[in-house]
Design goal:
Layout: H1 16-33, H2 38-51, H3 53-56, H4 60-75, H5 80-89, H6 110-115, H7 119-136, H8 141-151
Helix pairs in contact: 1-2, 2-4, 2-7, 4-5, 4-7, 4-8
The structure holds zinc ion (ZN).
Length: 153
């Protein structure tokens, strides 16, 4: 196994998985000191999760949660009522089909985000990253939207 690449997202980073996780932690720390990134933090996290299914989407529920939240950030402007609906809908026992994730085809990773030091271009790249990952899940857009529609007030 090539230890210089994250096996999930393909980021070029030392120590593969763990190194990639450290990049995410680095990003999280940066958000604390660069408050303009705060509104994008959760979207970035859902994006990161949808690139690292083995760690963050181990159940159909967690998969659905991150997928629909990503949909919400991009298509519903992060509407709080939609996010609440997603949270409520996945509370407790929920029967969901085993997800069939697409073949990974990532153009951006957290390593690219970390590399951009200026805030404005970084914000832009985070949005692009989220869009790219969402597009990889194109065949699951309809079920994600349908889930949101059924569960919003
Ligand atoms: Zn990774």
């Amino acid at each position: 196994m090539d230890d210089m690449v994250c096996p999930d997202c393909g980021a070029h980073v030392k120590y593969g998985h763990n190194g990639c996780r450290k990049l995410w932690d680095e990003f999280s720390v940066r958000v604390l000191s660069d408050t303009r990134l705060v509104p994008l933090r959760d979207m970035a996290f859902d994006t990161y999760c949808m690139q690292h299914l083995e760690r963050y989407c181990t159940s159909p529920k967690s998969y659905m949660a991150h997928l629909t939240r990503l949909c919400c950030w991009l298509e519903f402007k992060g509407d709080g009522r939609v996010l609440d609906g997603i949270r409520r809908s996945l509370d407790g026992t929920v029967r969901l089909p085993i997800p069939k994730p697409p073949a990974p085809h990532w153009t951006l990773t957290v390593a690219d985000i970390i590399a951009v030091k200026d805030t404005e271009p970084c914000m832009k790249l985070i949005r692009q990253w989220a869009e790219d990952v969402w597009q990889t899940y194109a065949d699951q857009h309809l079920p994600a939207r349908e889930w949101i529609r059924m569960n919003r007030n």
